[in-house]
Amino acid sequence: MKGKTTRRPPPKKPSNNQKDPVGVYCRVRPLGAEDEECCIEVISNTTIQLHAPDGLKANRNGEFKETQYSFKKVFGIKTTQRELFADVAKPLVEDLIHCKNGLLFTYGVTGSGKTYTMTGSPGQGGLLPRSLDMIFNSIGPYQAKRYVFKPDDKNGMEVQNQVDALLDRQKRDSQTSVPKTPTTRRTDPEFADMISPEEACKAGGVDEDSSYSVFVSYIEIYNNYIYDLLEETPFDPIKPKPPQSKILREDQNHNMYVAGCTEVEVKSTEEAFEVFWRGQKKRRIANTQLNRESSRSHSVFIIKLAQAPLDADGDTVLQDKSQVNVSQLCLVDLAGSERTSRTRAEGSRLREAGNINQSLMTLRTCIEVLRENQMCGTNKMVPYRDSKVTHLFKNYFDGEGKVRMVVCVNPKADDYEETLLVMRFAEMTQEVEVARPVDRPICGFAAGRRQRNQAFKDELTHRLEERGGPVDGESPTVLNQLLQSFHPLPPCEISGPNDDVTLPRLIEALEKRHKIRQMMVEEYNKTANMLKSVLQEQDSNLLSKENFIQEQRGRLGEKDKMIQNQKNEIDRLEKKSKMLEYKIDILQKTTNIYEEDKRSLQHELESREQRLQREMSEKRRMETRMQGIVTDAKLKWEKECERRVNAKQLEMQNKLWVKDEKLKQLKAIVTEGKTENRQPQRPSREKDKVAAKRSVSPSPVPTGPLVRPLHRRSHSAGGERWVDHKPTTNVDLDTVLQPNIPNAIKVNAPNEKALSKCDKYVLTHQEFASDGEIQTKLIKGEVFKTRGGGQAVQFTDIETLKQENPLAASRKRRSSETGPDGEPMERNWTDVETRCSVAVEMRAGSSLGPGYQHHGYPKRRKP
Ligand code: ADP
Ligand code: MG
Q1: Are 726 and 746 in contact, with CB atoms under 8 Å apart?
Q2: Cβ contact 112:30 at 8 Å
Q3: Is residue 390 lining ligand 1, measured as CB closer than 6 Å?
Q4: Is 126 close to ligand 1, i.e. is its CB under 6 Å away?
Q5: By residue range, what is the domain housing residue 647?
Q6: pLDDT tens for residues 290-316?
Q7: Among 415, 584, 625, 755, which lies 20 to 30 A Cα-Cα from 286?
Q8: 485 and 429, same structural domain?
Q9: Ligand 1 centroid vs 43 CA: distance in angstroms?
Q10: Does 284 reside within a domain?
Q11: Annotated binding residue 111
């Protein structure tokens, strides 16, 4: 009745952050006798180099391919089993003894030396026998008696009381079928054949105040079924029962275990090794019976080490389940990793092979996902459940423990391609990390209990030997002392009937003795009573102490629970913080991307703004330039317009004047006719005056019939007099060539008086020529006397004076010279006025048009 059992802290969630990568080792086996070409070279104690064999090189266009792979350590062909063990498995065994779990597996293609590495051969024991040996060498003296530890069927371990254990032991001894049959000895190698005693290893730091016990299980996974190789099935030679497969379960600490799997308690390396061979034998038999290929199965040898502290006295194992620690080391010899096509498997064998490959594939996938999760902080589900092998070892990867892998390679060229795949898997595996196991707390008893107990026992036997004979408890010493304290009895031989000395003396002596006896009885009773009371007192003391301890245990349990809860909480928070960190990281990255974008956009914006600015200023410049051109053109045109208006006015006036004159002449004819027909009716002076006034304006050749034939007045040269008529509207053209008539009467408007005095008339008339230049016409005529006494002018002659711009003429010439066919090509264009008009026209029509191009402005894009 040692109180309630508190749950062992589950190793499921490691509270430590420390992680170790999976230790991957590489072992290169020697080439076989018939193999010649080698494709592997060990180039350092951590690196190997693979080179493609000749045949393959040719296939790949002669491409010379060499690849290097690094490992925690590389073991060359000369490596002994002992050296390999010291590097690879020894630390795992040490961990096992210190309550930490370990997993060691061999990986490689068939024939690469996995089994040789794990099991070995006589004289060359592999990792398994060596591990067993080291375990027993270390805990040998501290092993508990058989059946003290007893596995429950839930992957846990109980401590039996001594009586039950003893009964179990007796039962075992009475059974004759103890697996120490001489028949197996002959065929299977014994442990002694595997390892020589001088190679023995021993772990340090074994807790002497604990008691240990080793249990082994041996299973085989074939075609994704689990078989117990140690299960004792009654052998039926007539109808052998096919082996029953086992299932995996999860225990209360979330560890996976094979439900109902035999766990054999072994007390020595020899015994353990014998059990191993028993399993091997069963495996061989099953393989032959069921026509299976052993290279296609995974074999798992599980060494469980149970340890519990000795009680305070140091003589029995503390019967408290919560104090029992169980650690295990799994030694796995995996199936050959080669692809199915390599072996000539057919039908169901092929399917099986597929499944086996499947389990290795799942292993690879799990490792891949684990690595990705760990490296990228993702939380992808690892598909452990997809195969039994990975499911069984799930705890090692997501719980805690040490995982090591020995990659076995055969350097022969035939294996090159498969070896390449093995190497890739190995490289990937090295990147996976597994939580480092934590140290477990030791129980609260004082250290050195076992030694003290041993010393006490030694002392006791020593004393017993001294006193001679086994007498109960302390009585021999006390009795002897008491016997010695009595006086010897006087001689009690009676000499005769009258001897009355002897008897009284004897009586006296006896009475004395009786008295002493009574005294002693009294003393004894007194002491006994005292002792009783003391014992009672002690008892009650003990009881209260026990109560106290009970109470403390309860509290401890609560505290444990609290600690566990807090640990869980911490775990949760840690996970959360990791997640958040990851998120922050992502956000940071996103921000960076956005910032980069922003910067580039800003840059672009700036450059665009600059371009816009440039274009704007360009536009402004162009605008001012255009404005200049427009005002220039406008000014020019205004001037031109004014000039043309003036000329037109002049022309119109002249026309008016001519018409007036004609009218006047007509009138004169009419009036003259009247005077001839009706003499008395003479034109009034007034009317004549008006007519005369009218006739002043020069008129073109008279349309009406003249009364008398026209004849020129005879006059001598120089005797003629001119009326020089220059209308006020005429523009002063600043010309050199000017009509200069001597003795002329200059008038702005012709009058009768001037005409009567002269016989010649000249009108200076300005008008536009066809080319737009002003030309001056001198319209000459002769003055006649009309019958009515008035004057008439008959125009006879016109002289034309024309001004020409020589610059324009020369330009015309030039342009005509450049013409390809001698024609003045751009005549219209080179003319100043046309050009202006075109420019203006362009300005009016389209805001910016081809007119600009004609003016020689640089070509530009339309906005
Ligand atoms: P696997 O288990 O990988 O199929 P084995 O362990 O059965 O391969 O090895 C095949 C053969 O090669 C065996 O005969 C074994 O003795 C031999 N062998 C393997 N590795 C070595 C080694 N390192 N040194 C010597 N022989 C070896
Ligand atoms: Mg093998």
Answers
A1: yes
A2: no
A3: no
A4: no
A5: 480-655
A6: 888 878 889 999 999 999 988 877 778
A7: 415
A8: no
A9: 22
A10: yes
A11: yes
